[in-house]
Design goal:
The structure is a single chain. The protein contains one helix and seven strands, in the order E-E-E-H-E-E-E-E. A hairpin with a 3-residue loop joins strand 2 and strand 3. By secondary structure, it is an alpha+beta fold. The radius of gyration is 16 Å and the shape is elongated. It has a single domain, classed as Thiol Ester Dehydrase, Chain A (Roll), CATH 3.10.129.10. It starts with a strand and ends in a 6-residue tail after the last strand. Helices cover 16% and strands 52% of the residues. The model has no long low-confidence stretch (mean pLDDT 96). It has a five-stranded antiparallel β-sheet, covered by helices on one side. Strands 2-3 form a two-stranded antiparallel sheet. It comes from Acrocarpospora macrocephala.
């Protein structure tokens, strides 16, 4: 199972020069897609247990549009292992005008991770 969300990165989330956004922002989005995976698979929001192999591969900037996905790679009794990916699919172009932006083909792989979520024991 794979769940994908898209999100515009608002300028209010820029914390660093060059309109850079901190990595925690993307990890929060990974939590959102993980929650939907748990709801779809188990009828429960679940809890995030751990991350492993988090890789920040490219900058995320205010004005980006991110495509964030979680794909189930392993199912245990109560645990689900998920592979996460955050792609920059659109990017602001303030060098052209205040509101200019472009679609990125191909998208930029910004962040990847592996995470584990847990859900309650099934009552069925």
């Amino acid at each position: 199972m794979k769940v994908t969300h898209r999100r515009y990165v608002p300028y209010s989330h820029a914390h660093y020069g060059g309109s850079l956004v901190d990595g925690a922002y993307v990890l929060g989005l990974f939590g959102d897609v993980a929650t939907e995976v748990c709801i779809r698979m188990d009828g429960d929001e679940g809890l995030f247990a751990s991350y492993s192999d988090v890789q920040f591969l490219a900058a995320v900037r205010a004005g980006d549009v991110l495509e964030v996905s979680a794909e189930v790679t392993r199912v245990g009794n109560r645990s689900r292992t998920l592979a996460f990916e955050a792609l920059v699919v659109c990017r602001a172009r303030p060098d052209l005008s205040a509101s200019a932006a472009e679609v990125l083909e191909p998208p930029i792989v910004a962040t990847t991770a592996v995470g584990v979520v847990v859900v309650p024991v099934s009552s069925g």
